[in-house]
Amino acid sequence: MTVAGDLSWPLAHAASRFGDAPAVAAGGRTLTYAELARRVGGVGAALGGLGERIGYLGANSLAHLEAWLAVPAFGRVLVDLNFRLSIDELAFMVQDAAVDVLVADAERRDVAQQLGVDVIGEDEWDALAAGTPVSPPGVEAAALAAISYTGGTTGRPMGVMLSHENLLANARHNLIATGHTANDVWLHFCPMFHVAGTANVFACTWAGGRQVVLPRFDPAAVLAAIERERATHAVFVPTMLAMLLDHPGFDAADLSSLRHIQYAASPIAPELQRRVLDAFDCDVAQFYGMTEAAPTVSHLTPQDHRDEERLGSMGAPVAGVQVQVRGPQGDALAPGEIGELWIRGPNVMLGYWNRPDATAEAIVDGWYRSGDIARADERGYLYMVDRAKDMIITGGENVYSIEVEAVLADHPAVREAAVFGVPHERWGEAVHAVVVLDGDADAEALIEHCRRRIAGFKVPRSVEIRNEALPKSGAGKVLKSELREPFWHGHDRRVS
Amino acid sequence: MTVAGDLSWPLAHAASRFGDAPAVAAGGRTLTYAELARRVGGVGAALGGLGERIGYLGANSLAHLEAWLAVPAFGRVLVDLNFRLSIDELAFMVQDAAVDVLVADAERRDVAQQLGVDVIGEDEWDALAAGTPVSPPGVEAAALAAISYTGGTTGRPMGVMLSHENLLANARHNLIATGHTANDVWLHFCPMFHVAGTANVFACTWAGGRQVVLPRFDPAAVLAAIERERATHAVFVPTMLAMLLDHPGFDAADLSSLRHIQYAASPIAPELQRRVLDAFDCDVAQFYGMTEAAPTVSHLTPQDHRDEERLGSMGAPVAGVQVQVRGPQGDALAPGEIGELWIRGPNVMLGYWNRPDATAEAIVDGWYRSGDIARADERGYLYMVDRAKDMIITGGENVYSIEVEAVLADHPAVREAAVFGVPHERWGEAVHAVVVLDGDADAEALIEHCRRRIAGFKVPRSVEIRNEALPKSGAGKVLKSELREPFWHGHDRRVS
After folding, report:
1. Is this structure's pTM higher than 0.90?
2. Which of B324, B346, B376 is the last residue of a domain?
3. CB-CB: which of A206, A320, A379 is closest to B319?
């Protein structure tokens, strides 16, 4: 009976409250919220004829932002794909999600056309957006809004099913945590195919802020956009912050408009964190989360960043999300004890698309088992200890070791392979492989073998070839910790 | 599948995040959030034995605040009663809601014992709270949390059914609109039996702010509490603001701790609004709403209060609530056109308790028909024009004319009666009756007749006795506008 709202609400609110205010600047165009709502309504009128699940393959753009505002609002499902993936990977996702039509930007059009599905370009999208607008029909809050692919622990990517309620709840959690206002100017350069990249799209729209869309992260372009647009807010992956600070133009750039920057999506090295706090004269906040939580879980506030003792924490749960540190039997642990993070709230995903097995493993009694290993202090602040899932985070991208190991094992000369992360100044971690051969191959050939099959960011940066078998436990499991240890000696392997 | 949360979440969050921080100061006691959670858990352990629907009859107190935090959190329903009502009225509500047990403060104990239901005192409540705490069991978001009585348009009070989701949504809307923080110190002196009085209890708890509970509004006590507690936030009914400004101690009081005050629940006269803005050196915000919307609908922000053109507005819808101005046929009207306010959102009530007829009339396709007549401007700001419901707001209390008319008509000497509001300097409006007799009675006798049957604030302050029949429309309906007009000539009858 209760109407909880759907993903059409933020834009409807902004169009009614801030209709004549600038909404989006993208690709040289500027639109008010009234104009944006008309374009989204134009797309909505055409969506019925396009299909049920709409894929997207492209950099950030006006059309890409509109896809998030239009596709779920008109009762369709957005499948936003990571364009850095290989054709094989993308083809798997398009087929797995039964995508009906794929929107692609000019740069990705050729790839899109190899995926076995109808493709429309951003120019065609633009024509749809110019059509006669219709009003959103109203959608159940529990309805599926988006399928967002994430690496699977079994080696195959899995589609995270996010409902309207999930994404609206996340927007509210971010509104409460950050306090968006109509006076904000947000820079969007994190890729929109990551839910972290769109987390602030709905929140900023609801608040009536101005949104500046950059196609991708580029340090010079970001510095120029901050100056030109007088940007007040931006979200970074730590790797981006390092690139920005290292950029020769950083010191001369006028960043005086910035009021608040956030970093998220991967661990930050303490030295980088220090550099950021020294270099930026504005609020700095950290968010921790994952696609399955749409994504925000915890928040290290600007105030926390002024407290040395808190800097090593990934923050405390935001209002609206519950977190428990639990032992192997599912028992809630006391502060200080180390266990797995279980997460609950209206933001937690519906489950994995077509994977009831994986869903049942991941969601237990309404709690999402994150796989991350952490401890909480007496005031609820979380400290990451390790990732239970065998995962590498490199430059903000998650790489599941098992997927890379499976590709390596496919090579005829490989007897066994272990893949893990090693410290990397720029990327946080880099993908490294240890391989035992029973045929003829060198590191270069193995890397090339991987490059043809998986996304570039998953391909090992370095391969060590061994003659003896890998160290194993009594149960025959490769002792990856033993392989990993020498690389991390003296390094702080903080993960988030 | 999605766990949307329940009313145990704000306190659980605060206890985990701000356990050692002061939560409540009430009646000379101060508790931390950890202590408050333990007491609420102690009450929770005992609630199972008390019944399904727990009534409350009392001034603001620690127990009263705990009732809101404990009763819904442990799956029971709170029926918080307006202690200003007459015994007949209270008895009707206790019976209508099938209250199982009534918690009463010492001052209301005698009245409570005449209502035909088991009574426990606040001293007994205190003993329950000291018991061994248990954890909240988890409750469905759609479950009934509270029944809050409001005057009925048919003359009988109706119980507004508010779910966990309704009250949580309202808390989130207030968190987003006001931006509560852990550094806030909120004064609670608006009566907690009004949902407006508790609106900020859940929001402030979620944010971990400190809450100072005063038993009731008293100008001297409020001024003293602001000084003593260094209060930062408070909510007023306009009448209270007038009393505060008129108080001889106002000019000498140290109000420097105040950062933000709100007014709500009734219209504010432009002169009073001006005085408030001149007298308080802090943010001033207005909220408009009603019990059926749990209650927040629209918000005139502090920034709006610095814009002369906006001062006459009751604000624009908060993010999360949709409002439409509709014509008599239910058609959405354009900005500037006058119509009825229809309201939609996760905060809108489940319906009226045991009154499917009234529910079906009030909630149409998920929209709540408020009965208030207003117009919206181009930016969504709402301007009240009139109330469709024949209702008087006097000192923040709603009085339905039909209820008073029915009581007057019950008097053997009364042939017909019309009741409406007339301007009143302190209360905004005062209840006035025009009566035609066919027997022997005077104004005093009629007032006394009412006083025995209905709450003091509903009793006519003045009664005019006429010899000729009341003016009527062709359909025989009393033309109340004609009766009302002479009183309002030259007055600005702003209503909200």
Report:
1. no
2. B376
3. A206
